[in-house]
Task: structure prediction
Amino acid sequence: MSQLREQLQAGKFVVTAEIGPPKGIDVAPCLHEAEQYLKGRVAAVNVTDIQTAVMRLGSMAVCHMLTDRGIEPVFQMVCRDRNRLALQSDLLSAAALGIENVLALTGDHVVMGDHRDAKPVYDLDSVGLLKAMSALEAGTDMGLDPKGQPNKLAGAPKFFKGCCTTPCSPTPEAQAIKLEKKVAAGAQFVQTQTVYDPAAFEKFMRQIEHVKIPVLVGIVVLKSAAMAKYMNRSVPGVQVPDPIIQRLADAPKEAREKVSVAIAAELIRRMKPMCQGVHLMTLGWDHCVPDIVQQAGMA
Amino acid sequence: MNATEPKPVEEIIQSLANAGSVFIVGCTGCPVGCDVGGPKWVDQMAAALTGAGKTVTGSGLVELLCNKALVGIKLGRMVEQVMAADAVLVGSCGVGVQAVGNMVARRAVPALNTICLGHYQGLWPGSERCAECGQCVLAHTGGLCPVTLCAKSLLNGQCGGTGYDGSCEVSRDHPCGWKLIYDRLKELGRLDDMRTLIDPSDYRKRAIPDSIRRTTHFALEVAPQEQSTPAKQAQ
Result:
């Protein structure tokens, strides 16, 4: 059974982390980072699915390799690249490989990535993907047989179904409504887009009070003031407050990593009472996870 | 010029569940040729709605509802009847439904599914676009089409790509379609419409059914237009 599910059900404040597969087949570095810094420290590790539409090695393969190494994965699935046949087939494949946690995402548009000429699929949206997962768990797929009955599966998978939401979106109410729909479609946990404004997060959490599923607040570790400014400029639904940018800018180069860790840990401390866990996105700085977890008082 | 088919009456009644009073507007352009518009259709819909316990505040016919100027002039003369209604039931292609939604401060509800416009986006086209998906969802989206306005054609609400300036992640020049829908529904006091779970699109409905292909209207109007597209001419 999914450790992530168990820990959330037990009411434990959980930590998840995230790794991105490489562009190419050299998986050793990302697996090493996961074994060295994440194993035993986090409940589960998300594996991104062709993140920001930049073509790379698949999420399912890396999830399987993590499982082999005793690390529980969260298989991220975006709706951008596969139609409903391929999505359902990959869900069955993942289940057959022992992958239980799946995170349903819309997926960044292809024009954000490095194959801007590709066809965006979006045959299903994230709500439709969650519904498909629920159907597979019930032993049927999305198709109908000639009698109009759902096709039956030989062996049904079991998933712990996750979804995403954007608390600091310009339209949090619209995000909350979509989250309700995701939960109605079967979502069992939420990992949010990155949050740097605890007050805005608190407000959003009040808005989704009636949605009874565990929420893991997302935090992208800020590596520099330049990165924070870039995010404010270019990443929708993300706003880094000026005081945080100033702290990063004021830090001498050799102390910058320490400041990055401290900022993440402080954010966790402030938002911990509002939610059920934290999802750390370190973008390659996996070695910072142990320090963040410790400074946030969760080690 | 276009091929539309009526939505089942039950679906229309369900879309109007919270509307006690309805104004009916029919397009006497293309749908008439398809035998689904015109005065006869308006009378039939009025009878069906009255039978379902609705008050019909009035009805009107506009030749080419796709043209917002004509919609404004024609419905402007019936403004009291229109504004007395909770919703406007529109018998036209998706372009016309959106044109009504953009011109009238009332919810525009489609009575037809648009199957084929031959990519024709109305006479004197404005900002409204119809994807000819054959399963019109405009009843739930404040009369703004998520299939054509959202860069990902998402059916159940926005992704995380809405910018603080209301733009879509694909481009600063491209407004987020679901932000527009959200704003419109909020304005109309109908945010609950966004809670409707919309099933994934059925791509078979985008194909023109044989029952329409066999009609004289299709042979005379839709088929020649399909053949006259530049791609076809090149063949």
